[in-house]
Amino acid sequence: xxxTKKFLYVNRKAPYGTIYALESLEVVLIGAAFEQDVxxxxxDDGVYQLTQGQDTTGIGVKNFSPTYKALGDFDVNKIYxxxxxxxxxxxxxxxxxxxxxxxxxxxxxxxxxxxxxSSEELSEIMDQSDVVLSF
Amino acid sequence: xxxxxxxxxxxxxxxxxxxxxxxxxxxxxxxxIEDGVYGAIKGAAxxxxxxxxxxxxxxxxxxxxLKARGISEDKIIDGxxxxxxxxxxxxxxEHDTTQSWL
Lengths: 135, 102
Description:
CATH class of chain B: Alpha Beta
Number of domains of chain B: 1
Largest interface: A-B, 26 and 24 residues
Number of domains of chain A: 1
Number of helices of chain B: 4
Low-confidence stretches of chain A: none
Structural class of chain A: alpha/beta
Strand content of chain B: 15-25%
Largest sheet of chain A: 5 strands, parallel
CATH superfamily of chain A: DsrEFH-like
Oligomer: heterodimer
Strand content of chain A: 15-25%
Radius of gyration of chain B: 12 Å
CATH architecture of chain B: 3-Layer(aba) Sandwich
Distance between the termini of chain A: 28 Å
Number of strands of chain A: 7
CATH superfamily of chain B: DsrEFH-like
Strand order of the largest sheet of chain A: 6-3-2-1-7
């Protein structure tokens, strides 16, 4: 029973207004322990989850954005951002946190986890997933 | 009767901001709070709606909610004033009534 499935977590909500973003992140981290093939997609308002420089001291809520940077250590290193969603929100890749991982098959070279993809490419990624979990 | 409108939803998730702008009377104010602050970002799809509404409405955005979401003040649409919690209280007291759009 060691069949590996391709999991895709689809994130479509902004980080602090609802609990979806934090819940998704927790499920991803729990799921990472089961050694499945995990990928994350950030579309629509989900792209706001990865903005750089989040500082929640003024609103009395935990800033969970640093946790995304730990995903690489849990072998979660396929992070897809829909280009169209970024553009519609006046954002570019530079507005997002750089997320990296160390590639064990390439002498632990540091590589980018984030891939900005078009709607068309993302639709293909979704289509090829065995399990899609939507938040 | 100047009214203060607060909007707490992202304009790309709900149509709250658009309805507020459509129905708010001239001379009133709109304060963007919580996920509503995403409506203040320059170059976003709904930014023109906000800019065009500025001829009749004053726009404000809550600073702590911007900071929490990693939106720096230089990304804010020109003409929107950033206020802190004390500024929020001042706005409420300066207006006759408040409508909290949800």
